[in-house]
Amino acid sequence: MSKKIWCLFLAGLLLFGVIAAPVFAADKTKVALVIANKLGDASFYDSANAGLERAKKELGIVGKVVECNFDPANYVPYLATAAKNFDLVFVVGFEFIDAIEQVAPEFPNTDFAYFDVSGETAHVTYVDFKENEGSFLAGALAAMMTTRENDPHVNKDAIIGAVGGEDIPVIHNFFVGYEQGAKYVNPNCKILTGFVGSWSDPAKGKEMALNQYHNGADVIFQVAGGTGEGVIAAAKEANFYAIGVDSPQEYLAPEVVLTSMLKRLDNAAFDLIKAKQEGTYPRGQVVSYDLKNNGVGLSWTDSALKLVPEDVRVKLEEITKDVVEGKIVVEEYK
Length: 334
Known about the structure:
Layout: H1 3-16, E1 30-35, H2 44-59, E2 62-67, H3 72-85, E3 88-92, H4 97-103, E4 111-115, E5 124-129, H5 131-146, E6 159-164, H6 169-185, E7 190-195, H7 202-214, E8 219-223, H8 228-238, E9 241-246, E10 257-263, H9 265-278, E11 286-289, E12 296-298, H10 302-307, H11 310-324
Parallel strand pairs: 1-2, 1-3, 3-4, 4-5, 5-11, 6-7, 6-8, 8-9, 9-10
Antiparallel strand pairs: 10-12
Helix pairs in contact: 1-3, 2-9, 3-4, 5-6, 5-11, 7-8
């Protein structure tokens, strides 16, 4: 271990609140989930943690969540400390791009899985989600609902919206699929999009959503992490529809959240932990999750089934089948 990383590792031990390395049962797989912010986003981080929790119950692993609270000073030391003490380290957040390039080479015996980010760091497994495919369905749903007759939540105009967190490629990929899906259903549908510039500012998320609403959008897709809770709050307040993201968010406002576009970090996390235990872990590879292998898709909770009419759901099933079979090719952001 380099002197610099060693010093950061020691700092990480203190930041973790421990003096010595934690003691675990020798025969148990040890997994750390290192996240850029903290749990409780009802979205991206919570989805990854759901997979970790499932693995703890079903596979008997030891798991720990490491929250970095969006503090760049924590990224390298926390990651190094996790790499020193755990067999498998899940990394969630584009904020770790530089940190993983520094830390991973120093721990060649540790397996790393970096979610939702591409790269070429040796022995790091990159987990790629086809959010554009799931967002295609969200856009198709929005386009079908926005002009639906006799629905008090919508107006007569074919206008929908989407609110993003930060202006980064992965969010553009959501938007590309969303817009393509909407225009697949209605070529004349207009899509309003914008970036708030933060993952943790619900007030600004609400402001942008209301602005889109006042410009005619009556179904708004939130792709903004914690900021997106403001989008859902705006939908509840102004009585328009919202679509959640990453985890099922219908419970936040079951009367207006049509569904959520799921990015199944929970499935990916569980699959990778199981593979690690079975000796089939895809070290250094790119692992893809799409509609076909249930890596993305729409959430169908009880409230979603009540809000989305049966004929719309049948059409979405047809579209899903066509995407899976390659009859519809969903574009990607380039």
